[in-house]
């Protein structure tokens, strides 16, 4: 059982206070910080109107406004930057790797001319080619089929011996399939056994390797080459051993003499010698680099890593392409002077109005709102009177007082935005089938054909024609200045490709508008044929030049206004721009984008927008008999909040430039008029600013007028005649926005209370005083498109919030409608993405509402998981993380009886994950998205502690026992799911495992740490030795994440210790995984026990465990909090049992693990074939001359003898060379079972047994470590030994047997081999 952490540190509080390294034993008091950051607005003022919160009464509107006005609420662990792996630690040690002085080694120098061996001789003999190889189990049973074709490579090793590697293919840079070492080879000769062109490579132990070539000549070449290699190897070995004998004899004598002279030296000289040794020792420590920081595997630490910081959600989606379109000028061939008697300026002879929008022919829809531009000269604008039109008695009086629900202009000057010429269009999914379309309108005068004819004549007298057109235009503008008529259109592709490259070319041609093809569908058909010249040739061209500028929006462009006329930073309308080429003091309007229904292209709403776009589409007056004249039909819309007598229109429509009126808003909007058409189609778009709170009285009133175009000068006729009325409520009976296409009837007259007449007509009740046009048929068709961030037209979202509102306003106990919760996941996915924070806040809030039953909680969590799953598959995981970090705020805590989100979430989640639960689909989704559940629980816990002021309380008293039981059950059920479903649901299981690990790691910050230790223990108990690899991966992944805790060292209680020989010490060093050690140092003990167990698993599992342990040690090295020598020494004492684990497995490590890597040190030559016997005798003789001193330098004698004595004469069977003797192994594709013939002598039997044991150790896949594993283990060994206190290391040696002491130095010898510098060529 793990230690009761809280009680243990209280018990040893005095010792902690007096410890000079108390930072290694305690958690900092400022571990978590709760901050509230102001929301970073992109606008100069808030997009939410000042009175919006007071006007709002609906729950959904209130919650949306709350979402857009709330500041960011963050819980930030102060030391979170230390809670990851070594790669992501703060770079307090510098951002560059340690600098090393460049040194030149002998192995890299060019060979000297006077060298004994010439360059050509050093290169040795080499040969490559294909051969057939027989198995090594004997010759008697061989056949042609026994041979396998292999690619052989004969090469010389650094010790002048030769090796014959063989591969499956010609890729010799890979590890060989096997090898034949030729240092124990006698020779190669031809044989007639088994197959043609065969030859034998005979060994000293009477064994042989059977090879065969394709032809006789190839076989002879191979035999000659192998024998030549053997001859050159023998010559080099004899020369080398002769020199070696002299050196060993002299060096051993010199060593013994120096040791003997030490005892006869004067005491002062001895003291001086010791001081010198101490100075040299200190000098060697200066400037030494940390081994782990130099190790190649950790160099990624210094690379530039991409920051994993979660940024706050932005208003503008980063994937959007923002294009600024500026209209510069419109010029027709007919030009003149509009002022009588003047000679200049020369302008267009009548006003024209341009409307620009984007269309997508792939989706066959309009993808942006309209941008209205008035490019007329100021003198031309004066042709139209500024007075408001007096259409009817209803509209003749327009109130100048601001009414509730009307939009107001803030900060911006209304004169400044009266004539905008630039707009910003946003495109989420750019491609070359998006078109920029411009429609051109003029003041109503007559038919399109008659009005366009003068502009299409190129051979007539333009001056006379212009004067004639001007003569007719002036009275028309005075009488009908408020009415427009279609005139022309043009289009161009916006992008050149699908990567967002903007096509900056202008419009090429302007085409006459056809009166019978005005609908949006007709325009889209034209655009589909736009790239086909034969189709465009049929269109009539108007001589017109429309100049525009198109380019990307610079980041610092000033004076941008949102689609609601709210200034965007930077805003300086009166100051001169800093960059004249890219900025302008003119206003630049953002244009609303109409997104597709694809959830992946959506983004969450972050600022208030509240618009409704109205599209009059058609009016069918073909069969009407109510009105005598109804041909030049104008449609005029008003927005009203009541149908009572005397009600007035709200000034809520955005006024297009050039329209009569004053200011940016108008009380009415009108469509273009078609001359002499009784069944007109319309293409107009009206932009309506909706009030903050809609009610059932809000509606759009449509008035239809017959416009008198052809007037008789003798008669004073009215400009227009009323020919009907229609209306459309904005809200349905259920209270939702009435969006989409609507066919509605037309009434002949308007009377008070007209909104109720539509329902009566639908029921077949004809009111006596109401005269319906054409019998009440649906003659008028209109469409509504909602672009709002506080209203939704989705019925499921609406029903859910209506049900929640009834629950909150009900005075009696009332349960929430479960169907409303269940159906929420069926809502439109785009809408779910838009209102993500608002919906999640409401669902989580329901968990804390009193009186809600457990079934309601379960349904709520299921709905929550389903919605998170939708966000996940819409690729909005980042948004989820942003919500958790910045927007989620737990419910206020009143008293101990109040429900909390964290406890309710944990309780319901563990119940849903129990094996007895039947909803497997939801359980799998819960595993997949468990990160959301765990992170919400953690943030709720932190905010609860801060709200309730419990951070100063004892950890055992912070949360009730019921919550701890819920957390324990949640961990147990989640772990059971992980272990049980890893085969069928690996993705879900892996996500759950990572999320659970991070959750447990974070629990150390808030909960009783002893309780969290038990959680880790419960998790690990679900895993057993022999588990499949996947389970081992999951287990070590969990341990790695938990051990990456920012206060991992204090959790393991590294108290100051002493060796067992020290007196009055409360703590002693632990050199093994004792029960007491694992209890007090729980995480380290668990890690080491898991490592020890994994070392006896297959290689792929071993490597996972070893790398996990290595990386945790590396984190201590790179942590800038623990850079002091004392800190590192104290930390490494926690890992003392690792030394024992390594020594227990030293037999599984070898200096010759890889066949292609051979020992390059002459002193480690394993074979005594060419070792002169006199050297052997000298060594033994010299050792026998001083038997009384042998025990004083036993390690020296052993080190020397183990290098020069052959394996069969070794003093100790545990020596390095016996375990890893290369000569004991001839690598084969099958088990090498030869060398059994000469076992009669005891010496041969012993040698054969040694060889057999070494072979078994070497080739057993579950035993022998590979080179990478050995290097990682040795790296950990060196780091620990380097930083251990001297008394800890001495205590370890005293606690070890003689054999273990020898093994300790053998491990150091392995380090010399595995980390040796082999030269730049290797």
UniProtKB/TrEMBL annotation:
Pfam families, alphabetized: DOCK-C2, DOCK_C-D_N, PH
InterPro entries, per the entry: C2_DOCK-type_domain (IPR027007), C2_domain_sf (IPR035892), DOCK (IPR026791), DOCK_C/D_N (IPR021816), PH-like_dom_sf (IPR011993), PH_domain (IPR001849)
GO terms, molecular function: guanyl-nucleotide exchange factor activity
One BP annotation, GO: small GTPase-mediated signal transduction
Region (Disordered): 1227-1253
Feature: compositional bias, Polar residues: 1227-1240
Domain PH: 124-231
Domain C2 DOCK-type: start-end pairs: 609-787
UniProt family annotation: Belongs to the DOCK family.
PANTHER family per UniProt: DEDICATOR OF CYTOKINESIS DOCK, ZIZIMIN, ISOFORM K
Name of the molecule in the record: Dedicator of cytokinesis protein 9
Taxonomic source organism: Ciona savignyi
